[in-house]
Specification:
With about 325 residues, the chain is of the alpha/beta class. The protein is built from 13 helices and twelve strands.
């Protein structure tokens, strides 16, 4: 059924990467009018506000979209749902949204699947040394001589410590179990019964760091997670441990990590950095025990078009009176990315 106006506050170049004709056709079928941002750049708050009125029942956002705040809500008093066609909603909606009874949904679960698979790949790459070996063969070298560089290691049988049972962390854990039964978890919001359901050993952070061969980070950006892995925590890692960060650089003291890597105590696979793109003099560049990728863990050919489709699915569910698949509830906001 037609549902007033839907405002799709996603600039055209980005929208073209996260949609397909079927998704846009379904979106148009949901409203009397769909207002798209056909520009090359995201709207400013004023440009979004100019398109909000009493007919607007849904707003769809993505990376770079203006925030839905009290001022926007005042202009769209009949707004019912905000669909965020990306991951974290915290930069894009304020608490007033829930306070006025507006529902929120997002595509974080779609992206989480990609990040979880990437994490497993990152662990295998870090343990087996794919990147330096590729560089060596490309340079005309072959296998290391006897007594040369250590061979790569198996994930099977190693202990993997997962920091946070977030949306991504909960997807990573069963994938890890395909390789090793020894998975530990640090998450202050998980109890022993929940840990048992996930078949993980629940540990304090220090114990997890000190006992794990691989540590993979999946905590959200929160005040209490700022630099949760600092110089003291890095010193707890066993020599030769692998640290994987496909979450946020926010979680790790970058200088302290660089020093540990430069000393050769640990190795790392990093998809996230404080400065993105990384500056030419990045403290990690050129280190043989570091693999760096450009914040692409959540990007796949399959994931991108599913982002908008997932939000459209939930807008359809909302207008037809069915439960949402990806709803974000206000009480969960404080612990979300």
């Amino acid at each position: 059924m037609a549902a007033g106006t839907i405002v799709a506050a996603i600039h055209r170049p980005l929208r073209e990467t996260i949609t397909n004709p079927d998704t846009e056709a379904r979106l148009r079928a949901l409203a009397d009018e769909v207002v798209f941002n056909e520009g090359e750049a995201p709207w400013t708050p004023a440009e979004l506000h100019a398109r909000l009125n009493a007919d607007v029942r849904a707003v769809i956002t993505c990376w770079g979209s203006p925030r839905i705040d009290a001022a926007a809500l005042d202009l769209a008093p009949n707004l019912e749902i905000v669909g965020h066609a990306a991951g974290s909603v915290r930069p894009y909606v304020t608490r007033e949204v829930w306070g006025r009874g507006v529902r929120v949904t997002h595509a974080a679960d779609v992206i989480a699947e990609a990040v979880a698979e990437y994490t497993i790949g990152a662990i295998l790459v870090g343990l087996r040394g794919f990147v330096p070996r590729h560089a060596a063969v490309s340079a005309g070298q072959w296998k290391d001589p006897v007594g040369g560089t250590r061979p790569g290691g198996l994930l099977a049988g190693r202990r993997v410590g997962v920091v946070a049972a977030s949306m991504v962390g909960r997807r990573v854990i069963p994938l890890l179990h395909a390789f090793t039964p020894d998975v530990a978890l640090y998450d202050p919001h998980v109890d022993e019964a929940q840990a048992a359901d996930m078949d993980v050993e629940l540990l304090e952070l220090d114990a997890l760091l000190a006992s794990s061969d691989v540590v993979t980070l999946h905590a959200p950006i929160l005040p209490e997670t700022r630099r949760m892995i600092g110089r003291r925590e890095l010193a707890l890692l066993t020599p030769g441990a692998l640290l994987v960060n496909c979450a946020r650089a926010w979680l790790v003291d970058q200088q302290a990590m660089a020093e540990a890597l430069q000393a050769g105590r640990i190795s790392a696979v990093l998809d996230v950095f404080d400065d993105e793109p990384t500056p030419d003099v990045s403290m990690f560049r050129g280190l043989p025990n570091v693999v760096m990728t450009p914040h692409v863990a959540g990007f796949t050919e399959e994931t991108r078009p599913r982002q908008l489709a997932a939000v459209v699915d939930d807008v359809e569910r909302h207008f037809s009176g069915h439960p949402l698949m990806y709803e974000v509830r206000r009480e969960a906001l404080d612990r979300m990315a």
